[in-house]
Amino acid sequence: MRYSNYFIHTLFEVPKEAETPSHILLLRGSYIHPVAAGIYSLLPLGHRTAEKVKAIIRDELDRIGGMEITMPVLNPAELWKKTKRYFDIGQELFRFKDRRDRDFVLAMTHEEVVTDIARQFLKSYRDLPIMLYQIQTKIRDEARPRAGLLRVREFFMKDAYSFHPDFSDLDGYYPRIFNAYLRIFARCGVKAVPIEADTGIMGGTGSHEFMLESPNGEDRFVLCTRCDYRANTEKAVGLKPPPGDPPGEVPPMEKVPTPGIKTIAELMDFFGTGEDRFLKTVAYEADGELVLVAVRGDFAVSATKLANHLKAVHLEMASEDLLRSLGLYGGFLSPVALSGVPLVLDTSVDDRSSSVAGGNEPDVHWKNVVYGRDFPRVDRVDVTEVREGDGCAQCKTGILEIRRGIELGHTFKLGTKYTAENSMDVTYLNSAGEPQRVVMGCYGIGVERLVAAVIEQHHDGGGMILPPTIAPFQVMLTSLGGKPDVVSTAEEIYRSIQSRFEVLYDDRDESPGVKLKDADLLGIPVRVVVSGKWLRSGEVEIKVRKTGEVFPCARKDLEETLHRVIRDLQPSLDGLPYLPE
User: Fold this and answer.
1) Biggest CA pair distance of the chain
2) Half-sphere exposure (CA, 13 Å, Cβ side) for 533?
3) What does the alpha-carbon distance between residue 36 and residue 41 come to, in Å, rounded to a whole number?
4) Which residue in 105, 283, 415, 520 could disulfide with 318, CB within 3.0 to 4.6 Å?
C-alpha cells in the first residue's frame, strides 16, 4: 500500500483531550477519530489492527471447538425482563421504545439472546457441550468514558458462551478457555495476569479477570509477595492484624459527650488513641432497606463485598433524612443499644479489645466498648477492602501488594443463573430421559481495549511499538530524497516484497525528518530506508522498531533478512500449550 494513496493524517501536536499514552498515540497516528465522548471511528490503520486482533481471537476459539455466530445489538426488553437485568442494571443500559411502543434495549452483553437460542435448540444430552461465540458491537452508557479506547460507550467485544450438562463438565472445559485467553493475549504482545474476580452483574459461581498491570488502569488488584494469590480488590481477602496492644481488663462502657466532633481524625485527637481503636459504623440502603455496617476504624467498607453478602442489586449510602426518620444520626452511629435495624459486622471487629463507638445520639460517643459484652454477637463477615501491606490469607506468610491494571478479558462460570426456572428456564433430557438444568459459562474480551492496552505497554517517546501479529503493516518502506535512482530503487523493492510482506510504502514528497518521525509514530515493526547514501554501497537501512537496532542490509539479502527479523519479533508462547477440545 502506498502512503500517498492511504488514509493517514498524522498529528504533530498532542490532542488536548488525550491523557494516556494509547489515547495520545492512536489519535496522533491517525488510528482513531473521536465522534462523541467515548465513541470513536476506527480509521484504516486502526481497523486493520482491530481486524488482526479479531483473527487471533477466532483462531484460538475455533481451536477449542468454538463456533462463531452473530446476534443482534437491538434486543427486545422482554428477554431482559425474564432475567430481571432490565430492572437491575442502572443507566448503563440503553432502554427505549420502538414506533409500536414496545420496549427494547441496546445490548451491552448477550446472555439473554444466546440463552434463548439454547432454549430453542439444546434439547438432549447429545447436544451438549457446545460453545458459541461472536465478535459484535456492544453499547454501554458509561458515566465517565475516558482514556480513549480504554473506556468507551460503543466497542467490539468477543463474547463466548458455553453450555454444559452439569457443573463438572463446565469445570473440565474452563481450563481450555482459560489457556486460550492466555494465548490470545500473548499473541497480541501482552502478558495478562489472571486474577480472582467478583462476578458482578453477570452472576455465577466464580470468575477470573485477565489483567495487564498499568499505571493508567482503572482496576486495582492485589498480589502476594510469596505465593500465587492474585485477586481483584473487590474480591481479595487479606489477614486482618489485631489492633495495638490489648488493653487488659476493660472497664465498663462509658458515655462521653463529644460536642461538634464527628470525624475519625477529630475523635482520635479527642480520645488520644489510634484509628484501630474505633468502631466505625456506616449506613447503607440495600434495595431500599436500611442496614448498618460496623468495621474497625482503620478499615474501609467494600461496597461490592457488602452487596454480595446482602444479595443486594442496588446499594447506596443512606441519606440523612432516612436516618433521622428512624431516630439515627450520621457521625454518631453505633451497634450499641441498636434495635430494629439489621447490622453487618466485619471480621476486623473482635472481642479481645475495646473500642470507641458512636452513641446513637448527637454529640455523644461510647468508650470502652467490647464486642459480645456491650452489644450482641452476630455472624461476622468480610466486608472491607483489602489494604496494601495486609498479610496473605492463602499462604499466611506473604504480604499483599496493590497494583493498578487494565482488564483485558473476563471469564465467568455462570452456572444456572440464566437457565434457572425463574430466569430463561433451559433444560435438556439426559440419557435416562430426565429433565436436567443446562449449565453455562461466559467469556468476554474487548477488542479495542486490547489494542489500547498493547500500546500502553509498548511505546516510547517516538510513538507506538506494535508486534507484527497486530500491526497494520509488517514493513514500512521509506524513500529519502527525490533523486531518480532512489525513487526507482524504492519502487523496485516495493514491487518485489509486497507479495510476501504487508508493506506500507512511504512514497510521499516529504522531508526525511517527517517521514522518519511518522514511521516511528505508527509503530510498524520494521522500517526499510532507501537513500542515496546506502545506494552507493548497494545496501538499504533496516530499523527494528522494538529494539531501536539499525543496520545495513544488502539488497539481495533483503527478503531473507525481513523474514528473520519479523520471525524473531513474534511474541513468545512458551509455557502456553494449545489445549485441544
Assistant:
1) 98
2) 8
3) 10
4) 283
- List all residues 6 or more positions away from 393 whose beta carbon is below 8 Å from its beta carbon: 229, 237, 238, 239
Integer angstrom CA distances of residue 387 from 195, 220, 223, 302, 392:
17, 11, 11, 11, 11
Tally the domains of the chain.
Answer: 3
Report yes or no on 54 lying in a domain: yes
First to last CA, the chain: 39
Whether 203 and 116 map to the same domain: the answer is yes
- Residue 415 in 3-state DSSP? strand
pLDDT at 122 over 60: yes
Residue with cell 462460570: 413
The C-alpha angle with vertex 41 and arms to 38 and 42, in degrees rounded to 5, equals: 120
Q: In this structure, is residue 248 part of a structural domain?
A: no
pLDDT average, residue stretch 129-149 = 95
What is the DSSP-derived secondary structure letter of residue 399?
Answer: B
* Same domain flag for 138 and 213: yes
> What are the cell numbers at 259?
460536642
Long-range contacts of 252-257 (CB under 8 A, 24+ apart): 252/368, 253/336, 253/366, 253/367, 253/368, 253/369, 253/370, 253/373, 253/374, 254/366, 254/367, 254/368, 255/359, 255/364, 255/365, 255/366, 256/364, 256/365, 256/366, 256/367, 257/363, 257/364
Please, which residues bridge with residue 232 across strands?
221
Residue-wise pLDDT for 484-538, tens only, equals 999 999 999 999 999 999 999 999 999 999 999 999 999 999 999 999 988 888 8
| One domain for residues 351 and 298 | yes
- Do 202 and 162 share a structural domain? yes
The domain that holds 315 is classified in CATH as 3.90.960.10
Most confident residue range from 232-241, 245-254, 399-408: 399-408
77 plus 205 within the same structural domain: yes
pTM comes to: 0.90
Last residue of a domain, one of 333, 351, 381: 381
Co-location of 217 and 318 in the same domain: no
Domain CATH for 521: 3.40.50.800
Q: What is the mean pLDDT of residues 386-405?
A: 94
163 and 192 inside one domain: yes
DSSP 448-509: HHHHHHHHHHSEETTEE---TTTSS-SEEEEE-S--HHHHHHHHHHHHHHTTTS-EEEE--S
pLDDT score at 339:
84
Is residue 464 situated within a structural domain? no
Same domain, 179 and 311: no
